[in-house]
C-alpha cells in the first residue's frame, strides 16, 4: 500500500503562500530551443538532482507541489537580492513569516534560469534538508517555463521547450494539465470507481515531492461519501503527518480502498489511501515505478508512458500506520477495532522485530526504505502513554 508507513510531509509540498503571483513568477528561462538532461537520485521517492549556481553544483529536490526554496546555509555563496517577507501556512494551518529572495542565475543542465524567486529556509530548524542532504527545492514557479520528463528507467530529468524533441511514440496521448493555485502547481483530472461501481471525478495535484501513489483530500472524501462511493473504509483518531512549523494534532482520518482509478489513459486497480487535511488530493512520485511522466507546463498537457497494461497496486499492509513524534517513531493511526483496544496515537514504538528503534539514526528512518515494508509479520514493543510496556505480534493483510 505505502512505500513508507510513516508519513513525513516534505517541507515544500504543503505550503500555502500568501504572496502575489507576480512575485513568485518574476524569473524566466533564458534558454531557447533546448533539450538537456540531468541525472537524479531517488531517495525514498524524493527526486534529488544537481543545480549549478555561480559555478558551484548543489543538490536540489525536484518538487512540483512546492515553490522554489533555498537553504540559508548557501545563500551567502550565491548572487541574490532580498525581496520581502511573506506569510506561509503549513499542512496543519500553522503560520510563520518567511523571507523571499531572488536568485540571479541558476543552471539545470544547459538550461539557464534568471531572477528566480525562492523562499529562504532556516536549515538549522529543518532536519529534512539535512537528512536528504539538499540545498534547496526546484518548484513549479520555475518549471512553468519548461517541459520536463521524469524518466525513471534512466534516472534522468529531461528539460526542453519543444515537445517534439522528446520523440514520444506516435500513439501516446496527452491529457490536459491545469493550474489551480498561486504557485503554478500542476493539476490533472482523474476518475475514481468505488466497489459499488459509482464514479467520482477530481482534480489532483501532481506532487513529485510526495513519495506515495495517491493521497485523498478529506474534503473530497466527504463529498464522495454523500454518494457512498467507497465501501471499504476504516477510520482512526490519529495523525500520519508532520507539519513544517509544529507537531500535528490527532484528527479523524480515513483509510480508503479505491477499486479503480482512470489516470493517463490507463485504468489502475486497487489503490489504498489515507485522507489528508490538504485542500486537494495528490498524485505522487511512486507512480514512477509504473510510468515515465512528462509535465508540459508550456502547452498545459501531461503524458504517462506506462510500463504495464493494467497496473494492479493491491498489496498487504499492517492495521496501523506510524509517524514521527518528537524525533521518535510512534503510532500514528490504528485501523482495526480490536487493535484500537491495545494501542493508540502517540504510543511510542520501541522495537520492531528486535530492531531497537532508538539506535537507528533518524535520518535513516526518513531517507531509506521503511523497515515495515521488509516483513509480513511484526513483533512490536510499545511504550504506552502511561509508561506501560506491551508487546504485540501482528501480520500484514490484503485490504481487499
How does this structure look, described?
The protein is mainly beta and 400 residues long. It folds into 3 domains: 16-165, Cathepsin D, subunit A, domain 1 (Beta Barrel), CATH 2.40.70.10; 167-306, Beta Barrel (Cathepsin D, subunit A, domain 1), CATH 2.40.70; 317-398, Roll (Pdz3 Domain), CATH 2.30.42.10. 8% of the residues lie in helices and 47% in strands. The chain contains 6 helices and 31 strands. It has helices spanning 21-24, 127-132, 140-143, 218-225, 337-340, 362-367; strands at residues 16-18, 28-29, 35-39, 41-43, 46-53, 56-62, 69-71, 80-89, 95-108, 111-121, 136-138, 147-151, 156-160, 175-179, 186-193, 199-207, 214-217, 233-238, 251-263, 266-276, 282-284, 291-296, 301-306, 316-317, 320-325, 328-334, 348-352, 355-356, 377-383, 389-395, 397-398. The strands form 5 sheets. Strands 1, 2, 4, 5, 6, 7, 8, 9, 10 and 11 form a 10-stranded mixed beta sheet that branches. It is globular and about 60 Å long. The termini are close together.
Q: Please tell me the total number of domains.
A: 3
* Nearest-integer average pLDDT: 88
Strand content: over 45%
Look up the CATH topology of the largest domain: Cathepsin D, subunit A, domain 1
What is this structure's SSE topology?
Elements (H helix, E strand, L loop, with lengths): L15 E3 L2 H4 L3 E2 L5 E5 L1 E3 L2 E8 L2 E7 L6 E3 L8 E10 L5 E14 L2 E11 L5 H6 L3 E3 L1 H4 L3 E5 L4 E5 L14 E5 L6 E8 L5 E9 L6 E4 H8 L7 E6 L12 E13 L2 E11 L5 E3 L6 E6 L4 E6 L9 E2 L2 E6 L2 E7 L2 H4 L7 E5 L2 E2 L5 H6 L9 E7 L5 E7 L1 E2 L2
